[in-house]
Amino acid sequence: MNFDGASGWLVGEVNKGLAAMFTMMNYERLSIGIQGIGCAEMSYQSAVAYARERLQSRAPTGPVARDKAADPIIVHPDVRRMLLTMKALTEGGRAFSTYVGQQLDLAKYAEDQEERSQAEALVALLTPVAKAFFTDTGLESCVLGQQVFGGHGYIREWGQEQLVRDVRIAQIYEGT
């Protein structure tokens, strides 16, 4: 890569560009983390719908869909475990993101300076944690969704493989 003759523009005040960049990066990290939650939610919703329709074998407790040759896979304990894990991770991520968002609001709009400072410190601590948590659990959820789909989870027709790729790269970019 060669930048000879390239033009540049000052971002913010002289000698304050790095601070401006880190302010932007914190918001970007949270946005990328939310991408992880979004991918997890999409994977969960698709996996639940698929598990309700896909027939295979019988429930361990006996036939559920007696009029059909097999039961939907949602009645199988391991499929239920995977779906419930996905749901818990997604809902936990949303709750955590709401808390971080509340702290962002307090850091900017709280009337009391002490409360603003405390919220700013908490946001500084939680931002990288939230980004890593949301994208890590997003990947875990998407891989579980892929597993619910079985072999169908690896082909493009169902979209699970794309969600895995989308959330995997989210773990990498914008730092941790």
UniProtKB/TrEMBL annotation:
Residues 15-176 form the Acyl-CoA dehydrogenase/oxidase C-terminal domain. The keyword RNA-binding does not apply. GO terms for molecular function: oxidoreductase activity, acting on the CH-CH group of donors. Keywords: Flavoprotein. Signal peptide: none annotated. Gene3D superfamilies: Butyryl-CoA Dehydrogenase, subunit A, domain 3. PANTHER family: ACYL-COA DEHYDROGENASE, BROAD-SPECIFICITY LINEAR ACYL-COA DEHYDROGENASE FADE5. This is Acyl-CoA dehydrogenase. It comes from Pseudomonas aeruginosa.
